[in-house]
Amino acid sequence: MQDSTAHEAITGGRTALGIELGSTRIKAVLIGPDHQPLATGGFDWRSTLADGIWTYDLELVRTGLQAAYADLAANVLAAHGVELTTTGALGVSAMMHGYVAHDSDGNQLVGFRTWQNTMTGEAAHELTQLFQHNIPQRWSVAHLRQAILNGEEHVSRLATVDTLASWVHSQLSGERRIGVGDASGMFPIAAGTGSFDAGMLAKFDELVADKGFEWKLADLLPEVLPAGAPAGSLSEAGARLLDPSGKLRPGIPMAPPEGDAGTGMVATNSVARRTANVSAGTSIFAMVVLEDALKELHEEIDLVTTPAGDPVAMAHAANGALDLQAWVNLFGEAAKAVGSTIDVNELFGALYRSALEGDPDGGGMLAYNYLAGEHVVGLEAGRPLFVRTPNSNFTLANFMRTHLFSTFGALRVGMDILIKDEGVQMDSMFAHGGLFKTKGVAQGFLAAAMNTPVSVGDVAGEGGAWGMALLAAFLGSGSDSLADWLGSEVFAGAEVETMEPNPSDVAGFDQFMERYRAGLAIEQAAVSAL
Fold first, then answer.
1. In 3-state terms, what secondary structure has residue 299?
2. Which of 241, 327, 482, 490 has a Cα at 20 to 30 A from 503?
3. Are 421 and 315 in contact (CB under 8 A)?
4. What is the pLDDT of residues 392-405, one digit of tens each?
């Protein structure tokens, strides 16, 4: 977009702002009428472990929102010569799931419990059996039920339970509303209704009736809305929260707040049925938009929805690319020790590309990237491991291939349930994340792991914050189909590169997975011993 056109769009409010509170960064993206970023802003943060619970201080949430917005506004001024005082629409997204609890006076009752915590196993199992619907440990209702089982005093004083996104939305708008995609990580959504399942709500209330709580579960949860529905507007207090300088004007229409899984689907044009996307970062997960409900209950598979309310099966692995990154960093230290000044990006590229020269199965070696527990294989804790036999073909190429394969190992376990057991069909799979920056390596290995074509490209823009900005723009689009609007208005003509699965790599990955499944006993022994 030319500077003059961008200037007019900003001053005329023909823009949309998306803010996403991710696990390591709060990011703000302002897009223009062409849906491309005009400016970005950010604030780095990380969770902390407090009394054994992974959390973020809600005061830091406020600080981070202000810092990210201030950075964005400064970049708008620097790039386009205009002060940011309004936008055409605004939306907030954040890490899905978790538990933000307040009383009727707005006092926070316990620290924000994030998706990282694995302390609700008893509750998650009980609710899964009660509902005959998988309830992962990360879900808000699992945290609530576990707090009740633990006899936590705060539960009797509850007035609201939120995700991080719905809580931030309430601070900006004064309205307790949530997008259906994020809501599906709180409590099950009834098929075809776009609302919390009334029958399951009644079962939960009956389960805890003997406690004598004054609340019903439905009273604690925010109102659920689909993408495109108005979710309120930026209040005077919300405008001051974002911009204490007073330049940002209230009244901006707000989209339903969403989770980062939903904004990832939007940012990769993967909201239509039979589409899928894989996101690889700290964790790795695949989102597959379903045509039909799954035939059986699978505790390894999360059932959520797109921001439009269509059913999604989510295969989630808690451990992503961090262990692989640690190995690359170790090679970097070795290079530095002998006087090399190789650029870190060059190092990643060289090591990743070496894997292309490896044996199809990785030379008979095995690795687990488990820095944390991995629910999909039944492990509550993890120990990163690399294992080889005396007969393994121990080369750099095979070492790197084995660790890249390992990054997709737990994900493959979950996807086997969908593809082999449930017969789920996919027309396309889009991959995004830093793992895929080296052209043709991880993309090809993922295609082999899933035995399906995998596409990558620049369509993910600025990630989830851009996806949230698109959902904000959709608010005023006049379209009643998010999938159609994305396809015709945002991604038409987008350049992507697609790799078909290489039969040799498919066979090699299958051999690796035989070792991977058999070797889980080694991983369990390491957890027990160390």
1. coil
2. 327
3. no
4. 999 999 999 999 99
Using DSSP's 3-state secondary structure scheme, residue 253 falls into: strand
- Above 80 in pLDDT, residue 36? yes
Cα 301 to Cα 175: distance, rounded to the nearest angstrom: 32
Report residue 73: phi and psi, to 5°.
Answer: -60, -40
Superfamily per CATH, domain 269-319+412-500: ATPase, nucleotide binding domain (3.30.420.40)
Q: What is the pTM of this model?
A: 0.88
Scanning the structure block, which residue is given the tokens 């619970």? 53
In terms of Cβ atoms closer than 10 Å to its own Cβ (0-12, 13-18, 19+), residue 492 is exposed
The residue with tokens 């994340």 is 433
For residue 489, give the 3-state DSSP assignment: helix
CA distance 368 to 234: 46
CATH number of 3-259: 3.40.50.720, 2.60.120.650, 3.50.50.60, 3.30.420.40? Answer: 3.30.420.40
Question: Where does the chain hold its CATH 3.30.420.40 domain(s)?
Answer: 3-259, 269-319+412-500
Closest C-alpha to 260, from 96, 86, 502: 96
Three-state secondary structure call for residue 460 = helix
Helix axes 409-416, 442-450, angle to 10 degrees: 30
Can you say how many angstroms the Cα of residue 278 is from the centroid of all Cα atoms in its chain?
A: 10
The model's pLDDT over 416-465, given as tens digits with 9 standing for 90+, comes to: 999 999 999 998 899 988 899 899 999 999 999 999 999 998 765 578 89
Tokens read off for 8: 């007019």
> Which residues touch 281 (CB under 8 Å, ≥6 apart)?
320, 321, 433, 434, 435
Residue in this structure with the two tokens 């609710």, named with its chain if needed: 127
d(CA 220, CA 102): 10
Q: Which two tokens stand for residue 309?
A: 């309310």
Residue range 308-345, pLDDT digits in tens: 999 999 998 989 999 999 999 999 999 999 998 889 99
Asked whether the predicted pLDDT for residue 272 surpasses 60, the reply is yes
